Amino acid sequence: MFASDADAGPAGDIRYSIIGGNVDGSFSINAQTGDVILMNRLDRETLDFYDIVIRAEDNVVPSRSATAHLTVYVGDSNDNSPQWSQLQYSQSLLEGLPANTVVTQVSATDIDLGMNAKLQYYLATPSQYFWINQTTGQIYTSMPLDREQMESITLNVMVRDLGNPQRNSAQPATVMVTVLDVNDTPPTFTGIPYNFEVAENRPSGTSVGQATAQDPDTIGTLVYSILSQTSNFFIDSTTGRITTINSLDREQLSNYEFEVQVTDG
Ligand SMILES: [Ca+2]
Ligand SMILES: [Ca+2]
Ligand SMILES: [Ca+2]
Ligand SMILES: [Ca+2]
């Protein structure tokens, strides 16, 4: 700051002082020269401008003075890292949905300004199953998911700003994706073909054997039935246990062949 005084001698000897706006004593002024000196590190995120009032006073009694305002705008430096709005996300998703299905959205904020606060999201470890929109933080599938291969997966997502130098979030956010079951796999019999023996002349309801099927899905109930026409055998639809309906006569027929079916309705 500089002021002039047309008087010579003490009346022209100017003293400078700050009389207002000096928040936290962040500035001082050289009383003789008027140089304003920065006393503290300024933080734009705390206060982004100062309106400092400076008085110039001559050195006689009574003194004459003038005041002036010095406005200081605090420029941004990239001194803050992006902060996650939440550190853990979890989302369930049906298996088999097409690629590019939205899973969830992560979000972070950065209290700096401009490019120092412009954010870019990315997966800490690239995944073949998911991708992230680096601008919006939305996470999408890259392919249909198969619960029978993978019931859940946890993604680590990072975010960085575009300041100079760039700053990363202190830690990744985790996104846990649970894959929900769809009845998309047919049941299969184990141990086929079945060969059972049963003695003749046994009463109706005699146990013949057991058909057993497996289904990797967790939903759907297995229902057993006999497909081909037979009046001699019964299958329990729930257990797959096969029993006789009639007493069998080996001399009449020694071999019975029939098909059983299982459904996962
Ligand atoms: Ca800043
Ligand atoms: Ca920043
Ligand atoms: Ca399934
Ligand atoms: Ca099934």
For the secondary structure, the number of strands is 21
Number of helices: 0
CATH topology of the largest domain: Immunoglobulin-like
Going by CATH, the homologous superfamily of the largest domain would be Cadherins
Structural class from helices and strands?
Answer: mainly beta
* Morphology: rod-shaped
In percent, how much strand structure appears in the residues? 35-45%
Largest sheet: spatial strand order: 7-14-13-10
Quick check: average pLDDT? 94
Give me the strand/helix succession: EEEEEEEEEEEEEEEEEEEEE
Main traits of this protein?
single chain, mainly beta, Immunoglobulin-like, 3-stranded antiparallel β-sheet, binds calcium ion
Write the layout of secondary structure elements.
Elements: E1 14-20, E2 27-29, E3 36-38, E4 49-58, E5 65-73, E6 83-84, E7 88-94, E8 102-105, E9 108-109, E10 119-123, E11 130-132, E12 138-141, E13 152-161, E14 173-180, E15 188-190, E16 207-210, E17 212-214, E18 223-226, E19 233-235, E20 241-244, E21 260-263
Parallel strand pairs: 7-14
Antiparallel strand pairs: 1-4, 2-3, 4-5, 6-9, 8-12, 10-13, 11-12, 13-14, 15-17, 16-20, 18-21, 19-20
Bound molecules: calcium ion (4 copies).
